Amino acid sequence: MQTPSTAQIRTAIEVLKKFGEHINHNADHLVIELPDTRMGGHVAARAKVLKIEQTTRIQSVAAQLENWRDQLLQQRRQCVSNHV
Questions:
Q1: Angle at 70 between CA 67 and CA 71, to 5 degrees
Q2: Please, are residues 65 and 8 in contact by the beta-carbon 8 Å criterion?
Q3: What residues contact 33, with CB distance under 8 A and at least 6 apart?
Q4: Are 19 and 61 in contact (CB under 8 A)?
Q5: Distance between CA atoms of 37 and 14, rounded to whole angstroms?
Q6: Would you place residue 76 in the very low, low, confident or very high pLDDT band (cuts 50, 70, 90)?
Q7: In Å, how far are 12, 58, 66, 74 from 15, measured between CA atoms?
Q8: What pLDDT is attached to residue 80?
Q9: Separation of alpha carbons 14 and 65, rounded Å
Q10: Tens digits of per-residue pLDDT, 24-56?
Q11: d(C-alpha 28, C-alpha 65), whole Å
């Protein structure tokens, strides 16, 4: 498997961030649409928990990708320095 470019990693990070925004938007919209009942409150609470879990995972993966991108940039800088 070929190592992705830093631009490809940056794109993946942006896609993950957009996906997190999508999850937040959908969960918020769901909560607004639920009836003001005991069951609606239960579903709203569960939706909020799932939203937090999913966005936390997305943020974690995005952070790992950012670290990988930074490592690749550092390696490339070192290679350029060694070749000069």
A1: 85
A2: no
A3: none
A4: no
A5: 37
A6: confident
A7: 5, 10, 13, 23
A8: 73
A9: 11
A10: 999 999 999 999 999 999 999 999 999 999 999
A11: 27
- pTM across the whole model: 0.82
CB 61, CB 20: distance < 8 Å: no
Which two structure tokens, joined as six digits, stand for 13?
């990070």
Phi, psi of 5 (to 5 degrees): -75, 165
Pairwise CA distance, residues 72 & 12, whole Å = 15
Could you give the CA distance from residue 13 to residue 70 in angstroms, rounded to a whole number? Answer: 13
In whole angstroms, give the CA distance from residue 57 to residue 62.
Answer: 9
The two structure tokens encoding residue 76? 């490339």
Question: Residue 64: which of 9, 8, 4 has the closest Cα?
Answer: 9
